[in-house]
Amino acid sequence: MKSLKYPFLLSLFAFVNCIPAPQKGLALYKTKNVIILVIDGPRYTETWGDSTHKNIPHLAKDMVKEGVVFTNFYNNGPTYTNSGHTTLTTGYSQEIDNKGNEFPKYPSIFQYYLKKTGKDKSKTWIITTKDKLEILSNTKDSLWKDTYRPSTDCGKSGLGSDYREDSVTFKNVLASLAGACA
Questions:
Q1: Is the pLDDT of residue 21 over 80?
Q2: Which of 104, 106, 112, 174 has its C-alpha lying 20 to 30 A from 90's C-alpha?
Q3: pTM, to two decimals
Q4: What is the rounded average pLDDT of the residues 86-115?
Q5: For residue 155, how many other CB atoms are within 10 A of its CB?
């Protein structure tokens, strides 16, 4: 496998969702899969905020044509990993323990998706370099806790196992895409 060019990728974080075929009478969508990729580490000024895009040439010139880039996103709360990722996955800003010792207060987009579609959890993944982000698969909400949880592949082997190399996470994302969306 070719190694990644950009060493500033401190944490690769991907969500993989396979969207089911629409029900009869509903509009057909071209989108079959949703992938949310979060690159935790580089600052806006080092990426999209730099008009030369010197640190992200492939993203800015090539990949941008193949997807959607949403740069009008702002964090008005704590800027540490678990709080930011909890906001992304639940839609609620929440200060949360940054060591992986606390679940989000609210259910995630993954839990809503799995409940609504009835899909097996193998069709939805949270894949991260950081083990502590496995908390995103669950919630403290008593109506949702321990239900409709997506598959996870976080850190070396789950919560409390330590971080792993981004190259391993990247390889696992590709394997999950092949399996989940087949």
A1: no
A2: 174
A3: 0.74
A4: 94
A5: 22
What lies within 8 Å, CB to CB, of 109 at 6+ separation is: 15, 89, 90, 91
Asked if residue 42 belongs to a domain, the reply is yes
* Tally of domains in the chain: 1
Whether residue 15 contacts residue 114, with contact meaning beta carbons closer than 8 Å, is answered with: no
Among the listed residues 1, 154, 151, 17, the one whose alpha carbon sits nearest the alpha carbon of residue 81 = 154
- 168 contact partners, CB below 8 Å, separation of at least 6: 129
Please answer whether residues 127 and 35 qualify as being in contact, where contact means their C-beta atoms are separated by less than 8 angstroms: no
Decide if 2 is inside a domain: no
- Per the domain annotation, does 1 fall within a domain? no
Structure tokens at 92: 């609620």
Q: Are 104 and 139 in contact (CB under 8 A)?
A: yes
Retrieve residue 152's tokens. Answer: 């996870």
Is the residue at 5 inside a domain?
Answer: no
- Say what the pLDDT of residue 8 is: 36
Task: Please state, in angstroms and rounded to a whole number, the distance separating the CA atoms of residues 21 and 119.
Answer: 12
Please tell me the predicted confidence (pLDDT) of residue 150.
94
Its domain, for residue 59, covers 11-180
Q: For the segment 128-162, what is each residue's pLDDT rounded down to a tens digit?
A: 999 999 999 999 999 999 999 999 999 999 999 99
Please tell me what DSSP assigns to residue 181. Answer: T
